Amino acid sequence: MQSLKVLKKSAVVACALSLLSPIVIAANNTAYALPSSEATIEISNGFSPENAQAVNGLIAELGANSYAKLDEVLQAQGAIASSEYVSAKTITMGGVVWNVMYVSKADYTANGTSSGDIIVTLWQTNSGEEKSYFSNRLMTGNVNDKYPINSYGTSLVRSSLVGSDYLKVKGAETLDGKGEIKDAWKPFSSPDGEFYSYLATPANMGWQETLSATDENTVGREYNLVSDAWGTPSKENWQAEGNNYGAKTGEALQAYQAWKDDRIWLPSLAETGESDAADGLWQTVAEQRKSDSQCWLRSGPVNGSVVNVSALGSGSLVNQTVFQSRNVRPAIHLNLKLAATAAGIDLNGHDCDWGEWSVVTPAACVSKGSKERVCSVCGEKQTEVIPVDLNAHDFSEDFTVDIQATCMADGSKSKHCKREGCEGKTEVTAIEKTGHSFTQYQTDEGGGTQTSVCDNGCGATDTKVIEKTDTGVSVWVWVGIGAGAAVAVAAVTAVIIIVKKKRGVAE
């Protein structure tokens, strides 16, 4: 089995299962991705040369320009987890939309897949709102039964995916329930389905052979969970010895392990994770775990006589008893080598046929832009930066006064670029100087002049001399009463004499 390198792990939180009663968490109606022409790679009618661009596009979405280059990456690091593909396009196959969850290489040759083939593990993006699938309709069961009712291999819910027989009567020695594949899954699980021959199975994958919920690289639980691994878990720590259904023999063991040969299957808690702290082998994020309704996992926790299985809805674990109705949200292993070969793709790569550059984001005066071109063969995009264009302004339609005109100097105005941080301007226009304006004069001390300060606030002043006319003499007149009259007359006489002397008139 290959040695897998974990790309990132956060702290793992160990928590015990509480199974005495079901834990119900309301489903979150937000799914990670919805199908759209911009967000998905569409593959229909199996794999053929007409789907070559879609398959090349998938390889590019996985971070390589050829199958051989992707193989080199996997040789170097072992596997690539879903955390690397949170923003990746979805894959639409058979009308079902899938997320890329894990990219690894097959460890074993089985079911048409050879050891070393690149396997892309896909998980349905969203289970939808239907809740019509029972894990099993049986109310109670015994872990020591030949076919325990929480074993995924003999469950009613598995039969809806692959048409397998299932346990109909608790404690029965035979599987009397006759399964029937639901139409949605026939393209994947029916031998004549369009995608059947391009799918690997859990039997090819060493990590599904030894998967353990007690591993700190999955969810770090105290005990192993039923049906996580089709073989022996890497860390064997069972809550009770009877929970180790892998220790059964004969028909009972074959039934327990039957899902390892399925082309479509339910993931386990150890794969999907249950929180961002315990994100599973696939290193999922909450948006990838969420679904419009709670959906079954194949994991089966056990506590005494109470038998439960796990479900996800809001992105966190929900423990449900096996007789409850929940939805299914399956996973598949796409054999990328088989798909690429059928599509006529050179596994060693191709010479891209690039189209014309198209501008994605125009460059501006303060920011760079971007442009891209697309290969017509594989759909790969090349992106380049467009340098800052110092002339690519976005000017305002209104003028801004840059320099205020004064009494003695012209000012200026212009239209400024509206982009923050840009000092560009255009249509710089002069504003004519205003000149002084003197309108408010005040008589100075002494009475011979009047001064005005410029109305425009520049501080300039203007002074005028008060001119006297030849006959204009200011005379003080003071009217007294009684004895004061003589004083008034003397004062007037003195003024007249002074004025005459100034004008050169003899007395």
Q: Which properties best describe this structure?
A:
single chain; 507 residues; alpha+beta; eight-stranded mixed sheet; four-stranded antiparallel sheet; 23 strands; elongated; disordered N terminus
State the separation between the terminal residues, measured CA to CA: 143 Å
Query: Which blocks of ≥5 consecutive residues have pLDDT under 50?
Result: 1-37, 472-507
Individual helix count: 10
Proportion of helical residues: 10-25%
**What fraction strand?**
15-25%
The main pleated sheet reads as: 8 strands, mixed
Number of extended strands: 23
Query: Structural class, from secondary structure content?
Result: alpha+beta
From the spread of the alpha carbons, the general shape counts as elongated
Report the radius of gyration as a whole number of Å: 45 Å
Instruction: Please tell me the overall pLDDT.
Output: 81
What does this structure look like?
The chain is an alpha+beta fold and 507 residues long. It is built from ten helices and 23 strands. The strands form six sheets. Strands 1, 2, 3, 4, 5, 7, 8 and 14 form an eight-stranded mixed β-sheet that branches. Strands 9, 10, 11 and 12 form a four-stranded antiparallel β-sheet that branches. A three-stranded antiparallel β-sheet has the order 15-16-17, with no helix packed on it. Residues 1-37 and 472-507 have low confidence and may be disordered.
